[in-house]
Amino acid sequence: MTRIPPNKPPISTQVEKTRNTYVTLEHQHTFSPALLNMLRLGLNRSVSLADNHRTIDIPPSMSWIPGDPFGYLTIQGLVTEMAGDFRLPRNDRLNNWQLGDTVLLTRGRHSARVGVQAQYLQFNQNTTSQVGGIMVFTNLENFLQGRAANVDFAVPGKIDPNRKYRQWLFAAFVQDDVRFSSRLTANVGLRYEFVTTPTEADGKISNLRHVTDRELTVGGAWHRNPSLRNFAPRLGLAWDPFGTGKTSVRAGFRLFYDEILPKYYFFSGSLNPPFTTRTTILNPPFPNVLANFNPNAPIRAQLQTVDYDLQTPYIMQFNLSVQRSLPGDFDVTVGYVGSRGKNLLRLGDANLAPESLVNGVKVYQPAAGRRNPSFAGIWQRVTDAESFYNSAQLSLQKRFTHGWRAQLSYTFSRSVDDSSGINSQDFSNVVQYGMDWYDPLRDRGLSAFQAKHNLTFNGTWDLPFARQSRGLTAALLKGWQLNNITTVRSGHPFTVELGFNRSGNLNTTSFSRHERPDLKPGCSNNPVLGGPDRYWDIDCFQLQPVNTRGDLGRNTLIGPGLVSVDLSLLKSFELGGDKSLQLRVECFNLPNHPNFAVPSGRIAFTGVAADGSAIVAPTWGRITSTVTTSRQIQLGVKLAF
Fold it and tell me: How far apart are alpha carbons 445 and 415 in whole angstroms?
């Protein structure tokens, strides 16, 4: 698969190849009508290969790092990481060996399950990051004059991309469905699971266990094992309050642990010295950024680290709903669904400049250097973030009778968190790295996936034409079906940012910089103008005092909503026996409605002019992509036999 990154000049595509293989063996043995045992052995193998493919020829002489391919560049307010994804190539191969056994016992009013499970994970990875360098220019003028603010790069000759991670997961559970009466049923369960701390087959573990450590810890445990007490209860109730079978009240509570598995460490495991060294040069020479660089001298390396005292992330889910059967084959459901996340991972640069409080305001002291002078940026994953989700849900369903069925669902929700992802590409509408690693509540705001309103409809209608006809009339008029899927949704949030390090906290690296401006007095924190040219109002923002944080919150602006209507028309021909032929006409985005993405122009200011005024980003407020295609019509033929 070839993917074209949105909002960037098409000089590079991403070529991705994936292959998933699943093998499962299962043996079932019935000891009695009330006792069944299931033994299962499986292997899931997943292969994901991704790399950049340049669509133009770039001569080696244009490379910023001699001997490396041409790298990547960011022009603040214009384009971010042009020429590809600096995290590539990335080749991942995961083998997940599984062994499990489950016993099912039915006795009286009880239906119980007891099981155990073991998994062995072999995660082999070949990946590099920042090869060729990421050049950052604060504005177009500096780019044209070759004045880069900084370059981030992997040091040539100090790159080891290969890792072989190994990890075990063990689990046991018990669950019992109890029928107390014809009107009340409960299911009660408890699951226990733990994982081993990941190891590397060749001992290539390197981690800065604490931000203040002056040296990396090479070898040994990557982090403490937080999973040894991971007990997860669950409880569900179903009650028929009137005993008529027409009303049902349901409630439930579940706790889930999100174990520290490869998805959490596969970006940070291969990027630290002594195996791989990355660093930053401020105000580098141009075009050869290594003209004054001595690779044999001590290097203040960039680090991707994991807090040594991790906790296992978990989420508590709870719900309450009432369902009622109505005349005309309708069912209506009204309910509440919520969740609370604890010990969630967040990511940020922990090696910031020191600060002091001046009249209650945090003021950074960039002249004092970083907290830990032995290293450059230290991007650490820590488990202290939280999430909060609450929703009211309404559903109306028409069961299939009289030739038609339909379902209408509406959700009114609010989702808030401290961090919505742990990798910079998890969401394209927000910055995943925290604004202030030492003040996580500063980033508490709407989740990246928040959508306040979500209305969906789907339906099927067997057109009532010539149902009793035969011959030519039946061939032409019988067997027509109309299908529809409609979605109407509120927009996702985003944040207006600064394109330079106004706060002076020294988090200047291109992919992790997270700076926000001040909101002008009297302005809403969601100053949306509408339209793709200038979606938000730049006049509502201003630069904060130098070396301080802006007071604008995270994810306060709401992007464009979505309206999607898909329609299909089917004609079925019976060919005798079990054979049938189906002709399909499918239309996507029937009204041809432009569903715009959140603005790619989210940077307000890229610097300070000589007179002290803010330099306005030329692309502020611009929307340059959509989330759905224009109207598309396709024809299909399906033969069933």
Answer: 8
